[in-house]
Design goal:
CATH class of the largest domain: Mainly Alpha
Helix content: 40-55%
Strand content: under 5%
Bound molecules: flavin-adenine dinucleotide
Radius of gyration: 24 Å
Number of helices: 22
CATH architecture of the largest domain: Orthogonal Bundle
Distance between the termini: 54 Å
Strand order of the largest sheet: 3-2-1-4-5
Number of domains: 3
Low-confidence stretches: none
Length: about 475
C-alpha cells in the first residue's frame, strides 16, 4: 500500500506530495499521526493542536479521506504494516526541530528495515544539504517561479482510500483528538479556505496599508497579511502567495489609481518578508542544533539566571511593564502579536529579566499559533543578540509605548487594571507608582548587567572569528561581509 504521511501540509492546492501520489495512479492512504510526544512537547499548545484539527476537518469536508491515528509514528507504521505492508511512503521534507529531526531519522531506519521506499518532496524554498550559501538565491528563484500545482479535481481524490485492512483503526477526529485541546474561538482559523480568504482580503483590500502599519499592535493585527499560521501549518504555500502577490503588483502598476504608490511599497515590503522566511528557515535546516546552542557558540557563556518568578511573571503578563504585559496577555488569548512586539518581548525577557532565549523559545512558541521552528529560533537568537553578525538592538518597552501606542489604547484593552489610568501615567510607570498596577519587576541596572556581559563577549577575538564563520555559512548576501561590522 502507498501512504501519504501528512505533516505540516494540510492543503489540496500546490501540494507536491499529493500531486506525486496522484501521478502514481495507484491507491494511496492519506495518514496523519497525532504523536503523544508532540502533544506533550514543551513547545506545543492547544493552539497548535486545534489548528491541525480544523485543517484536517476541512480537508475531509473537501472529499479527502484521512486516516488519523494517535500513536508514536514508528508504532503507527508497525501497526499498519502488520496487516498490510506499506510499500511506499510519501511526505514533504520538514524543516522541523530536534524532536522531528530525530523522529525522521528513526523513520528512515524503519523504512530500510521494512523495505518501504520513502520519498520526501520539497514544499518550500529551503534546501537540504546546501553546501554553498552563495548559490541559494539561484535555487530560490527556480523553486519560487516554478508553476504552482493545481488543486486536484474532486473525482481524482477517490484514489485516496483507507484500505479495508486498516479500517478497524479508523476513528473519528473527535475521538483521536479527545482531551488534547479546548476549542478557542479567539485564535485564527487554520484551513485552506481561510487561507484563501485572508490572502484575497490582503491583496485586494487590507494590503494597501501594510507599509507603515505593521509595527504598532493597534494596526498590524489588521493590516499585516496575517498569513503566518497558514504558512506554518501548510494550508497555503509561500510560492502560491509569492506568485499571486507578484501578479497583483503588476496589476496595480498598470492601473490608473491614486494609491498605486502605496500598493507598490506595501507589496514590495511584504514580498521581502517572504524572502526572509526562507532565509531564516534555511538557517535551521543547515544548523539543526540551534535549538540548543547559539549559532555563535561564544555567546553560550551569557549568565542567564532563569528565576522562576521572572519566568512566571513574563508568561502571565504580570511584569509591571504595561507594553510587555499587554502583549503577553494578547498572545495568551489570541495566539498572535506582530513582529516588532515579538522582538520587544524577546529582548525584554533576555536583557531585563535574564531569561535564557532557550526558555523564551518555549514560552513564546506555545502562544504563537503560527509557531514555525526555523523562523522562531533564528529570530529568538537575533533578538537575544547571540548571532554576532547583526547590530544588537535592545527594545525599550516604554519607548515602544510612545512609538507604537501613544494613546495607550492597546494597553488599556489588554491590561484592564490600567483602563482608568491616563496615558502619561502609564508612560511614566517606571518613575511613579501607578494605582492598581504591579511595580516593575526589573530595572535599567538589570538591563546594563546583561548588555555588559554581551559586549564583553562581542569584543573578544574568538567571538569575532566565530561571527565571521556564521556569516559565511548563514548570512544574508544582501550586505557584503566587508561592509559589516563584526
Ligand atoms: C522572537 C520572534 C519569534 C518569531 N516567531 C515566528 C514564528 O514562530 N512563526 C512565524 O511565522 N513568524 C515568526 N516571527 C516573525 C514575524 O513576527 C511573524 O512572521 C509575523 O508577525 C506574522 O504576521 P504576518 O503573517 O501578518 O506577517 P507579514 O508581515 O505579513 O509577513 C508575511 C510572512 O512573511 C514571514 N515573515 C514575516 N516577518 C518575518 C521575519 N522577520 N522573519 C522571517 N519570516 C518573516 C512570515 O511567514 C509571515 O507570515 C517571529 C519574530 C520574532 C521577533
Amino acid at each position: 500500500m502507498n501512504v501519504y504521511w501528512l505533516k505540516r501540509d494540510f492543503r489540496l492546492s500546490d501540494n507536491p506530495a499529493l500531486h506525486y501520489c496522484l501521478k502514481q495512479k495507484e491507491s494511496c492512504c492519506v495518514l496523519f499521526i497525532l504523536e503523544p510526544s508532540f502533544i506533550s512537547a514543551p513547545e506545543t499548545s492547544g493552539f497548535h493542536i486545534q489548528s491541525i484539527y480544523t485543517a484536517i476537518e476541512h480537508l475531509s469536508s473537501q472529499g479527502l479521506q484521512v486516516l488519523v491515528l494517535r500513536q508514536e509514528v514508528i508504532e503507527a507504521f508497525e501497526l499498519l504494516n502488520k496487516s498490510l505492508p506499506i510499500n511506499n511512503l510519501v511526505s514533504h521534507e520538514e524543516v522541523g526541530n530536534l524532536r522531528t529531526f530525530s523522529r525522521d531519522k528513526k523513520v528512515k531506519q524503519w523504512c530500510k528495515e521494512n523495505n518501504t521506499h520513502w520519498t520526501e518532496i520539497k514544499q518550500t524554498a529551503v534546501f537540504r544539504r546546501l553546501t554553498n550559501r552563495d548559490e541559494r538565491q539561484g535555487y530560490w528563484k527556480e523553486f519560487m517561479y516554478a508553476d504552482c500545482l493545481e488543486k486536484p479535481k474532486p473525482d481524482t481524490l477517490s484514489l485516496f482510500i483507507i484500505p479495508e485492512a486498516w479500517q478497524p483503526y479508523q476513528q473519528t477526529l473527535e475521538q483521536v483528538f479527545a482531551g488534547t485541546f479546548t476549542h478557542c474561538t479567539s485564535i485564527q482559523k487554520v484551513t485552506e479556505q481561510a487561507a484563501n480568504t485572508v490572502l484575497n482580503s490582503f491583496l485586494f483590500d487590507r494590503g494597501k496599508y501594510y507599509s507603515g502599519n505593521i509595527s504598532s499592535p493597534n494596526t498590524a493585527l489588521k493590516y499585516g497579511s496575517r498569513l503566518s499560521p497558514h504558512l506554518a501549518w501548510g494550508t497555503m504555500t509561500s510560492r502560491e502567495i509569492y506568485q499571486k502577490t507578484q501578479i497583483a503588483k503588476l496589476q496595480y502598476k498598470e492601473m490608473e489609481i491614486a494609491d498605486k504608490g502605496k500598493w507598490g511599497r506595501s507589496l514590495n515590503s511584504f514580498t521581502s518578508r517572504l524572502h526572509w522566511r526562507d532565509h531564516f528557515m534555511q538557517r535551521l535546516e543547515s544548523a539543526p542544533d540551534m535549538e540548543l546552542h547559539p549559532i555563535n557558540i561564544a555567546y553560550d557563556a551569557l549568565p542567564y539566571t532563569n528565576t522562576a518568578n521572572n519566568i512566571e511573571a513574563f508568561t502571565k503578563g504580570e511584569t509591571g511593564f504595561p507594553m510587555i504585559d499587554a502583549c503577553m496577555r494578547c498572545l495568551n488569548i489570541t495566539g498572535f502579536i506582530n513582529f516588532r512586539m515579538r522582538s520587544m518581548l524577546t529582548s525584554f525577557a533576555c536583557f531585563y529579566l535574564h531569561i535564557d532565549w532557550r526558555v523564551v523559545h518555549y514560552i513564546l512558541a506555545k502562544v504563537f499559533t503560527d509557531f514555525e521552528p526555523g523562523i522562531h529560533l533564528s529570530q529568538l537568537q537575533m533578538q537575544a543578540g547571540v548571532v554576532g553578525i547583526n547590530t544588537v538592538r535592545v527594545y525599550n518597552p516604554t519607548k515602544q509605548i510612545i512609538d507604537q501606542d501613544k494613546e495607550c489604547a492597546f494597553i488599556k484593552k489588554w491590561v484592564p487594571e490600567l483602563a482608568n489610568t491616563t496615558a502619561v501615567e502609564i508612560i511614566m510607570h517606571e518613575e511613579i507608582s501607578v494605582l492598581n498596577y504591579i511595580k516593575p519587576i526589573a530595572n535599567k541596572a538589570h538591563l546594563k548587567q546583561m548588555k555588559d556581559a554581551l559586549w564583553a563577549i562581542r569584543k573578544t577575538q574568538e567571538s569575532k572569528e566565530l561571527s565571521r564563520q556564521v556569516y559565511l555559512k548563514h548570512g544574508s548576501r544582501k550586505t557584503p561581509l566587508r561592509k559589516r561590522k563584526l
